[in-house]
Design a protein that fits this description.
Radius of gyration: 19 Å
Strand content: 5-15%
Order of helices and strands: HHEHHHEEEEEHHEEHHEE
Structural class: alpha/beta
Strand order of the largest sheet: 1-2-3-4
Shape: elongated
C-alpha cells in the first residue's frame, strides 16, 4: 500500500538518499560522534533549522520520521511541544552513521524537544522528550496544558500510594544535575525506593507510571525498553525518588 506510513528506518533511508553534498556535511556524523551522548534539550546541536536546510519533499520525510518515532498517544503528547518549536521547521536533525544503511541513528532536537530513533535491529530505541511532566511553573502547582503532565500525574499518584516507610526512602534532598546524567553500567547503585520494596498498591502505581512514560512510543520501542529493563532486574529493580529541593510533593 503506497499510502501506508513509512517506518522510521524507511523515512531515514529515503531522507539520507535525498541529501545534497552540503546537507550531508551538515547532518551526517560518525556513529561514535560525541554529540550522540547529549541527552538534554539545552545543548541544541548547532546547525541550520530544518525549515531552512531541507526542501519541501525532504521536510515531508522528516515529518514521516518524527511520526514514526511516536505512538498515536505520543503524537498527541508532543503536539504542544512541537508547536513551540515552530513545528519541525524550527528543529534540527543529526544522523549518526550512514542513513542509507541499517543501523543509522537519528536525533531530532529543539529547545523543547528531543527524539531519538534508529534501526529496529541496532541503536537506542528512543530518547524521548527530555522535559517530562514538569510540575512547577507560573508560580502555581501543576502547570495546566503541559504536554507531559499526565506523566507527572502518574508520578504524583505513585508518591501518594507509598506507605510512610517507603515515602521516607523515596524523598531525597536534591536531584543530580541533568547535564551530567549518563549510563552508569550494570553495577551502579541508584537512590530512592525500589519498586520491589513497595506494597501491592505501590507496585501497581509504579506500573502505571512506567506505562504512561513508555506509552508515547511505538510498540517495538516499548518492547525494547522493557527488554532492557528485564535484563537489569525487571521493573522491581527500578527506583523511584522525589526531591525536596524541587517541591515535587508539596501539592499532594
Amino acid at each position: 500500500d503506497s499510502s501506508a506510513p513509512l517506518s522510521a528506518d524507511e523515512a531515514l533511508r529515503a531522507l539520507g538518499a535525498s541529501l545534497t553534498e552540503r546537507q550531508r556535511a551538515l547532518l551526517v556524523l560518525p556513529a561514535d560522534h560525541p554529540s550522540r551522548q547529549i541527552v538534554n534539550t539545552l545543548s541544541v546541536l548547532e546547525r541550520p533549522h530544518l525549515g531552512t536546510l531541507l526542501s519541501a519533499e525532504q521536510r515531508a520525510l522528516a515529518g514521516a520520521l518524527y511520526r514514526a518515532l511516536l505512538s498515536p498517544r505520543g503524537r498527541a503528547d508532543f503536539a504542544g511541544t512541537i508547536a513551540v518549536e515552530g513545528r519541525l521547521d524550527g528543529a534540527v536533525l543529526a544522523i549518526y552513521g550512514e542513513p542509507t544503511k541499517p543501523g543509522a541513528h537519528a536525533v531530532l532536537m529543539g529547545g523543547h524537544l528531543m527524539l531519538r530513533g534508529g534501526s529496529a535491529a541496532e541503536g537506542p530505541p528512543f530518547g524521548g522528550g527530555v522535559a517530562y511532566g514538569h510540575q512547577i511553573g507560573n508560580h502555581r502547582w501543576r502547570v495546566e496544558g503541559n504536554s507531559f503532565a499526565h506523566h507527572g500525574d502518574a508520578a504524583n499518584a505513585l508518591f501518594a500510594a507509598l506507605d510512610p516507610a517507603a515515602r521516607a526512602r523515596a524523598v531525597l534532598p536534591a536531584p543530580p544535575h541533568e547535564l551530567v546524567l549518563q549510563p552508569r553500567g550494570a553495577d551502579a547503585t541508584f537512590p530512592g525506593v525500589a519498586v520491589s520494596e513497595l506494597d501491592d498498591a505501590g507496585r501497581a502505581a509504579a506500573e502505571r507510571l512506567l506505562a504512561a512514560v513508555l506509552g508515547s512510543y511505538p510498540d517495538h520501542a516499548r518492547a525494547r525498553a522493557m527488554a532492557a529493563i528485564e535484563t537489569h532486574g525487571g521493573p522491581g529493580a527500578l527506583r523511584f525518588a522525589v526531591y525536596e529541593s524541587h517541591g515535587f510533593y508539596e501539592g499532594m
